[in-house]
Amino acid sequence: MSNQYKWINLSYLESIAEGDESIIEELINIFLEQIPEFTEGVDKSFTEKRWLELAALAHKAKSSVLSIGMEELGNRDLKNLELIAKELYVREISSKDNPDIKEIETSQQLEKNLRDYDEERQKWVKTHASEETVASIIDTFKTALTKAEEELKSEIRK
């Protein structure tokens, strides 16, 4: 398999498959099957302002894109999307007149988790937590997935 791609790097898949190209192809196909779930899911979650669902999808997608070597997309963009979605949920619950106990507890847990990050990251999330930032990250994510999909399909046609 080749690592001469702009969007993907299959080194990790090659290492866990120990060079077995049939396993690598199977893992690529699994990733390709996930793309609609990710793209449609983030669009729907964002449109419906379902912030916890969006955070969970970003987290799941992060693992998948990292497996095909999309380090920046996973470790920066999707991590930021996950954290911003959590912050937007916290803000939504804090502005509600009568949140239920589950919403309050979830919000408190998310706030606690967000405080586990260094001050600079916390400040960045609070400053950038907006629907505009979410839309921009989603656009970046979907564009990168389209490019990765092209490269992965060319890899399995070899």
UniProtKB/TrEMBL annotation:
GO terms classed as biological process: phosphorelay signal transduction system
Record InterPro entries: HPT_dom_sf
Annotated coiled-coil segments of the chain: 107-158
Keywords: Coiled coil
Lineage: superkingdom: Bacteria
Gene3D superfamilies on file: HPT domain
Protein name: HPt domain-containing protein
